Amino acid sequence: MNVAAALPAPLGLLAELTHRCPLGCPYCSNPLALDSRSDELDAASWARVFREAASLGVLQVHLSGGEPAARRDLKDIVAAARDAGLYSNLITSGVGLTPQALNGLADAGLDHVQISIQDSEQSSADNIAGYKGAFARKNALAAEVVKLGLPLTVNVVVHRANIGRVEAMVDMALALGAGRVEIAHVQYYGWALKNRAALMPTREQVEQAVGQVEALRTRHHGRIVIDAVVPDYYARFPKPCVGGWGRRSLNVTPAGKVLPCHAAEVIPGLEFWNVRQHSLNEIWRSSPAFMAFRGTDWMQEPCKSCAMKEKDFGGCRCQAFLIAGDARAADPVCHLSPHHALVAELAAVREDVPYDYRHS
Ligand code: SF4
Ligand code: SF4
Question: Which residues of the chain have pLDDT under 70?
Answer without folding.
Answer: 1-5
